[in-house]
Amino acid sequence: MKNLILALLMTVCTGVYCQTNNQKALQDFEAAKEAFSTNYATEKEYITGMMKTESELNQSLELDQSIANVFYYRALLFISADQNLEAIEFLEYAIQRDSVNAEYHLRKGVTQTKIEYYTAAMASFNQALVYAPEDPNIYFNRGMIYYYTDQADNACKSFKEALSLGLASAQEAIDQTCK
Q1: I need a surface site. Which of 83, 119, 126, 179 has the fewest CB within 10 A?
Q2: What value does the mean pLDDT of the chain take?
């Protein structure tokens, strides 16, 4: 029964509901996403539940192309399925609709890094820093690009900045990279 209720909540936009109340539909989607993430025991169960919503997301995209979060969550579905090029496409749609959301740029950069698009990933991380200059994760990921492209000095600077902003796990990268 709990799964049925969650599945119903995951129906983002259908028929008149979405056409007349997009914000409420998006709030319901956020609530359902939170319910899925806290009620499922494993990431696999969570992803399986999210994948069931793909048709609902498609309907939502057709009804209202301007909801950036819908594109973002669609991108997360593609990321979970290791379909990174498709994920980047949907992250770009989200960014077109909410260009100041640092998380969208960060996620795009991380996804680009996975497929070794290092130049594009660096541009995404730099753009994320414009909107969230105090986010240590952005510095850390930028440091990884420098590391992958044999720029140890720049990697070291980025890792140290991430550490100074509170990302304790950056210490290991500093220990391995900075001499």
Answers
A1: 179
A2: 79
pLDDT tens track for 26-68: 665 565 556 555 554 555 555 556 555 666 666 655 544 457 8
The C-alpha atoms of residue 121 and residue 106 are separated, in whole angstroms, by 9
Record the tokens describing residue 69, joined without a space. 């979060």
Specify whether the CB–CB gap between 160 and 174 falls below 8 A.
yes
Q: Which pLDDT does position 179 carry in this prediction?
A: 81
Query: Residue 52, Cα to own-chain centre: how many angstroms?
Result: 19
Name the DSSP class of 5: H
Q: Look at residues 61, 154, 80 and name the one whose alpha carbon lies nearest to residue 173.
A: 154
Tokens representing residue 111 in the block: 């996804």
> Torsion-angle region of residue 81: left (phi > 0), alpha (psi -120 to 50) or beta?
alpha
Q: Which long-range contacts link 149-155 to residues 24+ away (Cβ below 8 Å)?
A: 149/118, 152/177, 152/178, 152/179
Which pLDDT belongs to residue 30?
62
For the chain, strand residue ranges (E) read: none
Q: Rounded to an integer, what distance in angstroms lies between the CA atom of residue 36 and that of residue 66?
A: 24
**Confidence class of residue 158 from pLDDT cuts 50, 70 and 90?**
very high
Q: What is the per-residue DSSP string for 15-27?
A: HHHHHH-HHHHHH
| Residue 149 contacts residue 143 (beta carbons within 8 Å) | no
